[in-house]
Each structure stands twice: as C-alpha cells, then as structure tokens.
Specification:
Blueprint lengths: L1 E6 L6 E4 L4 H10 L6 E5 L5 H13 L2 E5 L2 E5 L7 E2 L1 H4 L8 H9 L1 E5 L12 H9 L3 E5 L2 E5 L9 E3 L5 H12 L4 E5 L5 H12 L3 E3 L5 E5 L8 E3 L4 H14 L6 E4 L8 H9 L3 E5 L2 E5 L9 E3 L10 H9 L3 E7 L8 H6 L5 E4 L2 E6 L7 E3 L3 H13 L3 E5 L11 H6 L4 E6 L10
Parallel strand pairs: 2-15, 3-14, 6-7, 10-11, 18-19, 22-23
Antiparallel strand pairs: 1-23, 1-24, 3-5, 4-5, 7-9, 8-9, 11-13, 12-13, 15-17, 16-17, 19-21, 20-21
Helix pairs in contact: 1-2, 1-7, 4-6, 5-6, 6-7, 8-12, 10-12
The protein binds uridine-diphosphate-N-acetylglucosamine (UD1).
C-alpha cells in the first residue's frame, strides 16, 4: 500500500495549479456514450475515479483512450448495457450508467451502489425520477433493471426533494434521447451539472432552464458526438485556499492558478474571508494572503450554492488552527465525520454531537500515523500534516488518489516536505 509522509513546518509558498474537475468529468464521460460516434473530452484529470469510470464504459463496448490531458471515447458500438457490482461499489458515480444506458440502449442493468464510508446514500430519487419519466424499473439480485417502452422514454414530470446532483444527471441522460418532453423540478444547479447540461446542448439536446431549478427537455432521436472541454475542480480550489490560509506565511501571497472561484458558491467565499485570510481573483487565478491569526468561523454545509459538504473536513483543520471555538455542521450528510478520530490522534480538540462537530482550536497539532477513510477525509489529514509539528504518515492514500491529482508533487513544488512511500499496513511501526 502507499502512504504520504509529511514533515510539518516548512511554509507553503509559490504557485499551486488546480486540476480539472473530477465531479464534472464523470457525467461528461457518461454523456459520451449517448451518440454513435467519437467524443473528445479535454482536461480530464489523471485520477483513480476516472480510471474506474473508463473501465465501466469499456464494459459496455465503448473504447476509452487517454490522449494527452484528455480522453477519446468511441461509442460507435455499445453492446452490453450493464454496470457490474465490482465497479459500482468502488465508485458510486458509476450509477450514472443507469441514465446513460437507458438513453443509448433503451435498457440497463446497473448494480445498486450499496453503503458508503459516511453512512446511507440513497438512490431513491434516481429510481422514482426515472419511473416518473416512463422507465420500467425492477430490482434483481442487487441490480436495478430498467427498460424503456418501444420508441424511447415517453417523458413526464418529477420534482426532486432534496435536490440531487446524481439524480439530476441520471434523468437528463435518459431524457435527452427520447420521444417525449420531460420537466425536472428542484434540479441540481451545481456548476458540475451546468457544465454537463452545456455539453448535452452542444450535442444537440433540447434543454431549457440550464442553471435554474426547473429544467425542461424535449427528447430527440439522436445526439451528435462533440469535442468538449472540462472546467477546473472547485473542491480542489477550496482545499488549496484552506491550505494556503493555514500553512502559508502570514502576509505572503500564495497563487492558485487555473481556477473558477465563482464555482465555489458565496457561502464558502464569505466564510473564508471571515477567517481573516484575504483573496483576490486575477486572470483565472486566486491569490490568497494568509492571515496573522485565523479567526474561528462556524459553517453549515448545504446544497449548492451553500457551503460544500466536500470541504467540511478540510474546514475542520482550519478551525484547529484558529484561536477559539467554532462548529462544523453537515446538513447534507449527517454522519460524515470519519476524519475526526484520526485528527484527534494528531491532537485535535473536537467533539461530535449528531451532525455537528465543535472544534476548540489553538493547540498545535502533532504528527502521527493516521489512516484515510474516504476522499475528503484523507485530504484533511494531509492538511493537518502541513501544520503539525513532527512527522505525519497518512496511510491508505488510494482514497486520496480518487480525487486529487499529483497532490504531493504540487505541494513539494510549494516548499512542503512530503513524499509518497510504500508500506505494509500490518508491519511494526519501525518497519513501515
Ligand atoms: C455529489 C458529489 C459528492 C458530493 C455530493 C453533495 C459527484 C460524483 N459527487 O454526490 O462529491 O458530496 O454531490 O454535494 O458529483 N439523496 C437522496 N436520495 C437520492 C439521492 C440523494 O435522499 O436518491 C440526498 C443525499 O442523501 C444528500 C442529498 O440528496 O443528502 C444530495 O446528494 P446528491 O446531490 O445526490 O449527491 P451525489 O450526486 O451522490
């Protein structure tokens, strides 16, 4: 297995480039199997989730090839409308194959994703929504088996409660190619969904209301393959803004390049400024000036444009560096706190009560052997390692590799003492 070893102390300085968005790339890849042709997607990050989803697409008969910083997806022949358990359990977004295969083949057999590291993550809205638009849905030995009537998806109307990124994507994939009109209410308005809708539109899909809570779709018989460019990753940008604020030298700007700060939503940007950190946006870069002292700022996650749940673990580390008490409340996922016991091993003073963590900041964290439990938890441990005294070993970084491209090389180019090492999880500490 691999781990990251971080010697805390050296400040973060210089320039950190932000990679392309993982959560936008996945629906773009799913959309690429709708037309009978070759799609070129530019700016697709080198990540484990992208590799997993490439396998998922290949199983159906698509060819997926890496071409420099992008992907070429040839969906001329799609002959096997199935997404197997072995891959869906690795990455929940494989469930996008339900809508994509329905749109392309009129039928799909897709494994139910099952549990998740931070508690239940239901797919009821995906299934109810597709049914409301006219798909027949059955469950068979852990798989969703979906079929469309002859002639394609008849269409219909469905209101999400709550608004869901994944379910909005699934319904749009199925509804774009069909025989009728569909109306999706309380649709997700995350930037990742907007970028995906714009690609569908470029492919010829008849969508209106993109970026609003009500999207209308007029199904058409066939979409065209296109060349399309992905956007920067907003969660990586937020993670790097937090890294700069806590591990940079006060008063010395850190440059984050290739960014779309408008994709972060106002709640994050407002909370960030209240910490005392300053940022300016210049020619696609965000320049962060770390504060002399970090103010404790409580946050509550919410569906976009609220504070992203994907940034709450990192915010907890920021609060550990602040002087005073503050809370992190997660309204999107009530049980997403696996990082807290690991951070406590580094000296974090925090208590969890329901969906809220209270952090008493101010005491310096100390290096320890800690273990990643999921993607965002693992990056919070890396952030903690940057500011801790001594050496931090972050184990099981296959979680981190799902969503952060070349993190250690980016950080070491900014002065951080960090390296990747092989280790044996079951060996004694002095051997591993
Ligand atoms: C996406 C992101 C994930 C992020 C999450 C919330 C991707 C690949 N993943 O996940 O990183 O943490 O948005 O911003 O883009 N819900 C239901 N029933 C459903 C579906 C969702 O009740 O059928 C609830 C969820 O429990 C959650 C809320 O809806 O409380 C939003 O979840 P959703 O937007 O669906 O998240 P994902 O698309 O899975």
């Amino acid at each position: 297995m691999e781990k990251l070893v971080i010697h805390g102390g050296p400040p973060l300085c210089g320039t950190l480039p932000v990679s392309a968005s993982k959560n936008a790339a996945l629906p773009l890849m799913a959309a690429a199997i709708l037309p009978h042709g070759v799609t070129h997607l530019d700016h697709i990050p080198h990540l484990r989730d992208i590799t997993t989803f490439s396998h998922v697409l290949r199983i159906t008969g698509a060819s997926v090839e890496r071409k420099g910083r992008g992907l070429q997806i040839d969906a001329s022949r799609i002959g096997f409308p199935e997404a197997p358990y072995e891959l869906v359990k690795k990455m929940r977004a494989s469930f996008y194959m339900l809508g994509a295969l329905l749109g392309r083949c009129g039928q799909a057999r897709v494994s139910l994703p099952g549990g998740c590291a931070w508690g239940p993550r239901p797919v009821n809205l995906h299934l109810e929504g597709l049914k409301a638009l006219g798909a027949a849905i059955d469950l068979d030995e852990g798989y969703v088996v979906a079929r469309l009537p002859h002639g394609g998806l008849p269409g219909g109307s469905y209101r999400f409660d709550p608004s869901s990124v994944g379910a909005t994507v699934n319904l749009l994939l199925a509804a774009s190619v069909g025989s009728g009109g569909s109306r999706i209410e309380n649709a997700a308005i995350e930037p990742d969904v907007i970028v995906f809708c714009e690609m569908l539109q470029a492919m010829g899909a008849k969508l209106s209301g993109i970026g609003t809570r009500t999207i209308e779709v007029e199904g058409i018989r066939e979409l065209q393959a296109v060349d399309y460019s992905n956007c920067p990753d907003r969660i990586e940008l937020g993670t790097f803004m937090i890294a700069a604020a806590i591990a940079g030298t006060p008063g010395e700007p850190v440059h984050l390049t290739h960014t779309r700060p408008d994709h972060l939503g106002d709640d994050f940007l407002d909370a960030f400024q209240k910490t005392g950190a300053e940022y300016v946006v210049e020619n696609g870069s965000v320049i962060v000036t770390p504060p002399e002292a970090v103010n404790p700022v409580s946050i509550t996650t919410a569906i976009y444009p609220g504070f992203p749940t994907d940034l709450q673990a990192q915010w907890t580390v920021l609060l550990a560096c602040a002087h005073g008490k503050a809370t992190v409340t997660d309204q999107v996922y009530g049980d997403r706190f696996n990082h807290i016991p690991e951070l406590a091993r580094m000296g974090l003073q925090a208590s969890v009560n329901g969906n809220q963590v209270t952090v008493s900041g101010g005491a310096r964290l100390t290096g320890a052997r800690v273990m990643s439990t999921d993607l965002r938890a693992s990056v919070s441990l890396v952030l903690a390692g940057l500011v801790a005294s001594g050496t931090t070993h972050v184990g099981r970084i296959y979680h981190l590799d799902r969503g952060y491209e070349k993190l250690e090389s980016k950080l070491s180019q900014c002065g951080i003492d960090i390296r990747r090492e092989q280790y044996d999880e079951f060996s004694a500490p002095n051997q591993g």
